[in-house]
């Protein structure tokens, strides 16, 4: 009787590890897709989904850095995504 209980626990543990592994692999694929996106695409997907983003010439290069830092936390952007968007807007 105790052996059956241990087997059930082991099965549940293995299943949990399998699910965690699948989530991790999927997350890596998602990260790669995001990494391949350019600043213009990220700007369109993240900035314009909440509001009408200002034109790229609305701020100086230095001001875009400040805006980028502020909006990064609101849009849940990574540093790399933020930098790509700022580079796009500065150029």
What does this protein look like?
- This protein has 91 residues and is mainly alpha-helical.
- The protein folds into two domains: 1-36; 37-91, Cytochrome Bc1 Complex, Chain D, domain 2 (Orthogonal Bundle), CATH 1.10.760.
- It is built from four helices and no strands.
- It has helices at 2-35, 39-47, 61-75, 79-90.
- The longest helix has 34 residues, at 2-35.
- The mean pLDDT is 81.
Radius of gyration equals 21 Å
What is the helix fraction of residues, given as a range? Answer: over 70%
| Beta-strand percentage range | under 5%
Mean pLDDT: 81
Class of secondary structure makeup: mainly alpha
Number of strands: 0
Order of helices and strands: HHHH
Q: CATH topology of the largest domain, anyone?
A: Cytochrome Bc1 Complex, Chain D, domain 2
Distance between the termini: 70 Å
Q: In terms of per-residue confidence, which ranges show pLDDT below 50 for 5 or more consecutive residues?
A: none
Helix count, per DSSP?
4
CATH class of the largest domain: Mainly Alpha
Shape: rod-shaped
Count the domains.
2
The CATH architecture of the largest domain would be Orthogonal Bundle
| Major sheet summary line | none
Task: Briefly say what this structure is.
It is built from four helices and no strands. It is mostly helical and 91 residues long.
Q: Which helices and strands, and how do they pair?
A:
Elements: H1 2-35, H2 39-47, H3 61-75, H4 79-90
Helix pairs in contact: 2-4, 3-4
Q: What attributes does this structure have?
A:
91 residues, Cytochrome Bc1 Complex, Chain D, domain 2, 2 domains, 4 helices, rod-shaped
